[in-house]
Design brief:
Subcellular location: Cytoplasm
Strand content: under 5%
Keywords: Chaperone, Cytoplasm
Order of helices and strands: HHHHH
CATH topology: DNA polymerase, domain 1
Helix content: 55-70%
Number of domains: 1
Pfam family, one: Sdh5
Family: Belongs to the SdhE FAD assembly factor family.
Organism: Pseudomonas syringae
Largest sheet: none
Structural class: mainly alpha
Protein backbone atom coordinates (compact mmCIF):
# COMPACT_ATOMS: atom_id res chain seq x y z
CA UNK A 1 0.00 0.00 0.00
CA UNK A 2 1.25 3.44 -0.89
CA UNK A 3 1.24 5.93 1.94
CA UNK A 4 -0.32 9.36 1.57
CA UNK A 5 2.99 11.05 2.38
CA UNK A 6 4.71 9.22 -0.49
CA UNK A 7 1.87 10.05 -2.89
CA UNK A 8 1.93 13.73 -1.91
CA UNK A 9 5.70 13.89 -2.40
CA UNK A 10 5.45 12.19 -5.79
CA UNK A 11 2.57 14.46 -6.78
CA UNK A 12 4.77 17.51 -6.26
CA UNK A 13 7.75 15.89 -7.98
CA UNK A 14 5.47 15.03 -10.91
CA UNK A 15 4.55 18.70 -11.35
CA UNK A 16 7.29 19.74 -13.69
CA UNK A 17 6.24 23.24 -14.68
CA UNK A 18 5.83 22.13 -18.26
CA UNK A 19 2.16 21.62 -19.05
CA UNK A 20 2.80 18.78 -21.49
CA UNK A 21 4.54 16.80 -18.76
CA UNK A 22 2.13 17.78 -15.99
CA UNK A 23 -0.92 16.50 -17.86
CA UNK A 24 0.75 13.11 -18.25
CA UNK A 25 2.57 12.65 -14.95
CA UNK A 26 0.15 14.08 -12.38
CA UNK A 27 -2.85 11.89 -13.32
CA UNK A 28 -0.53 8.88 -13.64
CA UNK A 29 0.86 9.30 -10.15
CA UNK A 30 -2.63 9.77 -8.70
CA UNK A 31 -4.44 7.00 -10.57
CA UNK A 32 -1.88 4.39 -11.60
CA UNK A 33 1.15 4.66 -9.32
CA UNK A 34 -0.63 3.09 -6.30
CA UNK A 35 -1.38 -0.01 -8.40
CA UNK A 36 2.21 -0.52 -9.61
CA UNK A 37 4.50 -3.21 -8.24
CA UNK A 38 7.57 -2.16 -6.29
CA UNK A 39 9.92 -2.42 -9.28
CA UNK A 40 7.71 -0.16 -11.41
CA UNK A 41 7.33 2.31 -8.54
CA UNK A 42 11.12 2.51 -8.32
CA UNK A 43 11.25 2.99 -12.08
CA UNK A 44 8.72 5.85 -11.94
CA UNK A 45 10.73 7.55 -9.21
CA UNK A 46 13.85 7.14 -11.37
CA UNK A 47 12.00 8.69 -14.31
CA UNK A 48 11.34 11.76 -12.17
CA UNK A 49 15.09 12.30 -11.78
CA UNK A 50 15.45 12.83 -15.53
CA UNK A 51 15.70 16.24 -17.13
CA UNK A 52 12.44 17.83 -18.27
CA UNK A 53 13.74 18.36 -21.80
CA UNK A 54 14.64 14.68 -22.11
CA UNK A 55 11.24 13.60 -20.83
CA UNK A 56 9.52 16.06 -23.13
CA UNK A 57 11.25 14.48 -26.14
CA UNK A 58 10.35 10.98 -24.99
CA UNK A 59 6.70 11.77 -24.30
CA UNK A 60 6.30 13.70 -27.54
CA UNK A 61 7.85 10.67 -29.26
CA UNK A 62 10.62 12.72 -30.81
CA UNK A 63 13.27 10.61 -29.10
CA UNK A 64 13.60 7.49 -26.97
CA UNK A 65 15.48 6.97 -23.76
CA UNK A 66 18.66 4.95 -24.12
CA UNK A 67 17.54 3.12 -20.98
CA UNK A 68 15.07 0.44 -22.07
CA UNK A 69 13.41 0.33 -18.66
CA UNK A 70 12.80 4.09 -18.61
CA UNK A 71 11.42 3.85 -22.13
CA UNK A 72 9.06 1.10 -20.93
CA UNK A 73 7.75 3.46 -18.22
CA UNK A 74 7.32 6.25 -20.77
CA UNK A 75 5.35 3.83 -22.96
CA UNK A 76 3.23 2.75 -19.97
CA UNK A 77 2.34 6.40 -19.28
CA UNK A 78 1.62 7.15 -22.93
CA UNK A 79 -0.49 3.99 -23.38
CA UNK A 80 -2.71 5.25 -20.59
CA UNK A 81 -3.67 8.34 -22.58
CA UNK A 82 -3.37 6.98 -26.11
CA UNK A 83 -4.29 3.30 -26.11
CA UNK A 84 -3.33 1.31 -29.17
Amino acid sequence: MVEDVELNRLYWHSRRGMLELDVLLVPFVREVYPTLNDADRDLYRRLLTCEDQDMFGWFMQRAESEDAELQRMVRMILDRVQPA
